[in-house]
Amino acid sequence: MDNHHVNIDLTKIDSQSGLPKPLEGIRVLELGQLIAGPFCATMLGYFGAEVIKVEPPESGDPIRVWRHIDSDGVSPWYRSIARNKKSCEINLRTEEGRSLVKDLANKSDVLIENFRPKTMEKWGLGPDVLYETNPGLIYTRVSGYGQTGPYAMKPGYASVCEAMAGFRYINGYPNSAPVRPNISLGDSVAGLTAAFGTVLSLLAKQRLSHTQRKSGQTIDVSIVESMFNMTEGILPEYDRFKTIRQPSGTTVTGIVPTNAYPCKDGKYVIIGANGDSIYKRLMIAANREDLTTEEYATNKERVKRQEEIDDAISAWTKELTSREVLESLEKANVPSGSIYNIEDFVNDPHVVERNICEDVKVGGQDGWNVKIPAIPPKLEETPGESNWAGPDLGQHNREIFMDMLGLSSQQVKQYQKAGIVGKTL
């Protein structure tokens, strides 16, 4: 077992900024595919971890060819979610391939997987097996419903897990089909939850390493629970009052006013004036001081008059362009904003100044730049960064198989011929 990464002193590592990134010196082995598991590894890699992404030979992670495909045959989305990662090709359906993965796990601090529960155990790569040779391993597992329980073995994509968590139920309009955001939100939220759990476990490892216990631990993240955790007061309100929150269109139940309001130019603006003093400033700006009397002074009272208040605000915004509405509300210090599409966002001066979008180079000298989201939070002294775009399939085979695992070129050729590893070298 290689213990180089287990008790490393992070304060002695240099980086381009002169200070180590928070996770420099941590090696992460990513066995996931698509979004939830890989997004967890993306977060860790952005802040300094070395991420080794294991992909099936020839085909790679399916997300490489999802949605729009660039001129090189790879999705720009993949270039974003696989940034800062090293790609190697290993066939996990072969005994020799699984042996290579076990060797990599022994040289790693963190393993991330998002296969269906029991798959890793079936392959002889479950946590109990890997702890025998690497007791300090942080073993992060992401699945639809969790590793235990009657639904554990069900296939669980974000769509169905968002539905079970209640997120889909409250989205849309009353008496209409539930709607979904046009992204796989559950996967990303689960990935964030997994990254948080991984960092917590790395911190706990520092304390557990001084005890007789193993210093590693398993992290069990489900998409259902990750989404349910975002549902705010829905559970305690149901528990105390048997109230079942219903879909509310463009509003939020029990908070008035917060809505999307139409403007003369055909656009909508978002206005969130649910604070009592903010509401008063809004109605003065809208020339409706008659709606600032005691009957409208608190949110509790305004909820009773939601339709009246929203109608009054809409009547005002319809007479103005979206720009005029926002300029008026900015002067009144009322939270408001445009509804951006991606083109609007990328070109906004605030977005540009804060470097919210980063450029990464794809290809060689004749390559091109791809814009990808910078990953928050912004750390003052040890910020993260995108060092390179998601790699080509098997781009790091040589480094990982020969330099890291110590295989000879002859051994690699034999594995390639047998379909155990990819042909790129």
Automatic annotation (TrEMBL):
<protein>
    <submittedName>
        <fullName>6105_t:CDS:1</fullName>
    </submittedName>
</protein>
<dbReference type="GO" id="GO:0008410">
    <property type="term" value="F:CoA-transferase activity"/>
</dbReference>
<dbReference type="InterPro" id="IPR050483">
    <property type="entry name" value="CoA-transferase_III_domain"/>
</dbReference>
<dbReference type="InterPro" id="IPR044855">
    <property type="entry name" value="CoA-Trfase_III_dom3_sf"/>
</dbReference>
<keyword id="KW-0808">Transferase</keyword>
<dbReference type="InterPro" id="IPR023606">
    <property type="entry name" value="CoA-Trfase_III_dom_1_sf"/>
</dbReference>
<dbReference type="Pfam" id="PF02515">
    <property type="entry name" value="CoA_transf_3"/>
</dbReference>
<comment type="similarity">
    <text>Belongs to the CoA-transferase III family.</text>
</comment>
<dbReference type="InterPro" id="IPR003673">
    <property type="entry name" value="CoA-Trfase_fam_III"/>
</dbReference>
